[in-house]
Write a structure and sequence with these properties.
Among the domains are: about 170 residues, 3-Layer(aba) Sandwich (Aspartate Aminotransferase, domain 2); about 140 residues, Alpha-Beta Complex (Aspartate Aminotransferase, domain 1). It has 15 helices and 12 strands. Strands 1-7-6-5-4-2-3 form a 7-stranded mixed β-sheet, with helices on both faces. Strand 2, helix 5 and strand 3 form a beta-alpha-beta unit. It is globular and about 80 Å long. GO terms for molecular function: carbon-sulfur lyase activity; pyridoxal phosphate binding. Keywords: Pyridoxal phosphate. This is Methionine gamma-lyase. It comes from Turnera subulata.
């Protein structure tokens, strides 16, 4: 295979090819309803950007795009295939080779994700972890160094702590992301390739100072990668200085708890390099998204803003009321949260402070007792991992999503053994769900120290 030049098909609106594959020396090709170019490239906020993004119509004029459920694509002339593999013809002009490379339906979802995050390009993957690992491997080769927040999703922490040093000779220094001086001192000029952190950390809900962290990294020539899974619509890291934004689409963006997916959003040069035939991490590792999955997700993104506003509105109401009950509540929307003012200064207007709450019950036994009553006595929510579902989901982080970290690492990260991470849903009325919480809390108090007593 010849090395592709990777034309920037992730950035520009495509043009449907004419009856013949060959170009006639100019760009006056037939432009169908599929190729509607946004009237403005000015990024205002996530909702405005999504509304301005190219809308992909169906093959026969349907208001929804067609699903291109094909692994490979035909050409009309033999010479066209050579030109496609050489990089002369690409997805920017509606020329496709193979769905591990580019698929029209997946490509459209990538455009939506780029609009959502305000980046030049986006590429969607089979999972959030595949997006994270592919970005790190593209930016950091053998012998490279990463500076990362010491508070991360357990899978990401395990990737950086165990897998990458063993398999790729990539080592990580973990720091308190709130200590800007420590971050600066951890960067080794000429060796550190990227600074990695979560916009709102999993599970402690620590808010990163994205503008300052980006400034520090850029002064030393380091790329900033931000996981924005906890805060789609709420925060726009690329507009605050970050270079690359990654997502587990599985969570809030999907919203249905039924799809595993991820995304990489960033400069066209990076995304295209990740699709290089000889050196691209996405191309060669192959975390390909299925076109049918991409179609389903594309239909959910238009109402993401409405869902996020309700997740956040209810989280604020619950956090306020839980605090009144005497519970130790962690939520960035509360004024006593250490980064409350920071988040206010960075957040997109009208989207709130996030859809997750933490309740610190101090011990795992107390945390389990409260969750038992919330699920089994009052139907307030479900004991399950993940987040962004329309029902409230609860888990004790130390023994579940952060279990990859050892007890000492969890203690350093501030993850209490009794920390409940609660993803606030929006099903039912607010008064109905709060009544269910109060019922469960009352039953727990009545049961005293007796585990699982009804």
């Amino acid at each position: 295979m010849a090395e592709t030049k990777n034309p920037q098909g992730l950035v520009f609106a495509g043009k449907k090819r004419a009856g013949q594959d060959e170009f006639d020396g100019n760009d006056d090709f037939i432009v169908t309803k599929k190729a509607m170019v946004p009237p403005s490239s000015v990024w205002e906020d996530p909702a405005a950007a999504l509304a301005a993004a190219r809308h992909e119509f169906g093959e026969h004029g349907g208001v929804n795009m067609s699903i291109e459920a094909s692994a490979m694509f035909t050409v009309m002339e033999p010479e066209t295939m050579r030109r496609m593999f050489s990089g002369e013809l690409g997805p920017d002009r509606d020329f496709f080779i193979y769905s591990r490379h580019f698929n029209p339906t997946v490509l459209n979802l990538g455009r939506q994700m780029a609009a959502l995050e305000g980046t030049e390009a986006g590429y969607c993957t089979a999972s959030g972890m595949s997006a994270i690992s592919s970005v790190i491997l593209q930016l950091c080769g053998s012998g490279g160094h990463v500076v990362a927040s010491r508070i991360l999703y357990g899978g990401t922490h395990a990737l950086l702590t165990h897998f990458l040093p063993r398999a790729c000779n990539i080592n990580t220094t973990f720091v308190d992301i709130g200590d800007l001086e420590a971050v600066k001192n951890s960067i080794v000029e000429g060796k550190t390739k990227l600074l990695y952190f979560e916009s709102i950390s999993n599970p402690t809900l620590t808010v990163a100072n994205i503008p300052e962290l980006s400034r520090i990294a850029h002064e030393k020539g380091v790329t900033v990668v931000v996981d924005n899974t906890f805060a789609p619509m709420v925060l726009s890291p690329a507009k605050l200085g970050a270079d690359v934004v990654v997502h587990s689409i599985t969570k809030f963006i999907s919203g249905g708890g039924d799809i595993i997916a991820g995304a990489v959003c960033g400069p066209a040069s990076l995304v295209n390099s990740m699709m290089d035939l000889q050196q691209g991490a996405l191309m060669l590792l192959g975390p390909t998204m299925n076109a049918k999955v991409a179609f389903e997700l594309s239909e959910r993104i238009p109402h993401l803003g409405l869902r996020m506003k309700e997740h956040c509105r209810r989280a604020m109401a619950y956090a306020t009321n839980m605090k009144k009950l005497g519970l130790k509540v962690i939520y960035p929307g509360l004024e006593d949260h250490p980064q409350h003012e920071l988040l206010k200064s960075m957040a997109n207007k009208d989207y709130g402070f996030g859809g997750l709450i933490c309740i610190d019950m101090e011990t795992e036994e107390k945390a389990n007792r409260l969750m038992h009553h919330l699920q089994n006595c009052s139907q307030f929510g479900f004991m399950a991992v993940s987040l962004g579902y329309y029902e409230t989901l609860m888990s004790c982080s130390g023994s579940s999503t952060s279990s990859e970290m050892d007890p000492e690492e969890r203690a350093v990260a501030g993850i209490s053994p009794g920390l409940i991470r609660m993803s606030v849903g929006y099903l039912g009325t607010l008064s109905q769900k709060w009544s269910q919480f109060e019922k469960a809390f009352s039953k727990m108090q009545e049961s005293g120290g007796l585990f699982y007593k009804n």
